[in-house]
Amino acid sequence: MKILVTGASGFLGARLVERLCELGHEVRTFGRGTDAPGRLAPLGIEHIQGDICQSSSLERAVTGCNVVYHLAGLVSYRRSDYDLLYKTNVEGARNVMSACGKASVDRVIHMSSIAGMGIPQPGAIADETIEYNLKGLGLYYCDTKFEGEQEVLKFAAKGLPVLVLSPGITFGEGDTHPHHHTIFRAMAGGWLLGYPLGGVMFSDLEDVVQTSINALAAGRVGERYVIGSANVSFRDAANMLAEVLHGRRPLFAVPGPVTEAAGICCEAVFPLFKRRPALTWQVAWLSQRKIFYSSDKATRELGHKQTPFLETIRRTAPYYLRNANAAH
After folding, report:
1. Are 203 and 177 in contact (CB under 8 A)?
2. Considering the chain, what is the average pLDDT of its residues?
3. How is domain 2-176+201-229+293-306 classified at the CATH fold level?
């Protein structure tokens, strides 16, 4: 099939493009760069330069495509990035869906996140039926992922053949998120003394990519699917990381107010030195909650597979440790 992938410069998008090419699909990428991302250059794929916030370049990119994967988006938990988050994650999603509708694309796969779904009740494992419950709390990344998903579902209600995939915190080779590298480096060095009280659904890059490929032919349009690999508390995650990295286990749980105060300080101080903080108030607040989700629906309908968390970190640890400095 002729497939367009937005956001191919990200580690998830790049890996998806590689796998699609291996399967024989004709892939086109779309992004602000003049060429396809460097690691994809040897594949000889077509690249169209443009911005998801500009409709004209999008309409040219989707023309003639059977399938569109919309992965482009902004991940930021900094308060100062709200305007850019809204423009990218909400208006950008609306523009992509509009272009796909005009081009009569056969299937659209929108990559969202559990961040846009909400926080489960204490002790609960939520699923796709949860109602978003974070509005008004200042969690701007979460808000814009939710609002972007609502834009997508509006188009689905009008007949656009689109479905939504929602992974958790994704670990994998090629990841450039600085806080992920910081965690691996801290655990390997033995200087992470405490852990947050919460937990989260983690996703393995290879699981997310394979399920995204399965969604070419499986799944119901107008539906969203949680695609996680493991629900793990941060305490258990830290202990498993210590085992794999031969580091020291954290000694104590860090109280919520302390974590949030540290996030506020990091967000205020790091920009003075032209650095992006790995910890912000939003990250700190979320780290106190157990954000656990079930992937049963994706398992049934998309053939989703779940790699054990310990296996994921064993495979990816060499990458994170080797590239820790580059990510900063």
Report:
1. no
2. 94
3. Rossmann fold (3.40.50)
